[in-house]
């Protein structure tokens, strides 16, 4: 067995790209949900939602081409690092997102029964970062 790192497949890059691009589209189809998870200390939830949505779409699509894959992967790593504080905030403040009286999703802090779910989100963000990192690092000449 070789000690050389394996080159991740085009299929895994495209799957990650589709996942992130799809999540980015959701920022625009369900902005109320994504704006509700932006921490209260961030000055503009709408801007955070739109910027991260555009970035996820662009970087997700960038994963489809070998030519743009590496910079797109670094972009996705930056996005994951940038949104990680929101996931930590959700855990620390027991944040849930529920429909309000008008049907739009809204942030509920100190919600019962969400701590474990919000804690489980944290390692998943790290797992996504590891999967994306495999495409960001330069291994061989193919990706």
* Mean pLDDT across every amino acid position: 92
Structural class: mainly alpha
Major β-sheet profile: 2 strands, antiparallel
Low-confidence stretches: none
Spatial strand sequence of the major β-sheet: 1-2
Number of helices: 5
Proportion in β-strands: 5-15%
**N to C succession of SSEs:** HHHHEEH
Radius of gyration: 17 Å
Morphology call = globular
* Helical residues, percent: 55-70%
Number-wise, the strands total: 2
Quote the distance from N terminus to C terminus: 20 Å
Please give the domain count.
1
Describe what you observe in this structure.
- The protein has about 140 residues and is mainly α.
- The protein has one domain.
- About 65% of the residues lie in helices and about 5% in strands.
- It has 5 helices and 2 strands.
- The chain has helices at about 10-30, 30-35, 45-60, 65-90, 115-135, and strands spanning about 95-100, 105-110.
- It has a two-stranded antiparallel sheet.
- A hairpin with a 5-residue loop joins strand 1 and strand 2.
- Helix 1 (about 10-30) packs antiparallel against helix 3, helix 3 packs antiparallel against helix 4 and helix 4 (about 65-90) runs antiparallel to helix 5 (about 115-135).
- The longest helix has 27 residues, at about 65-90.
- The protein is globular.
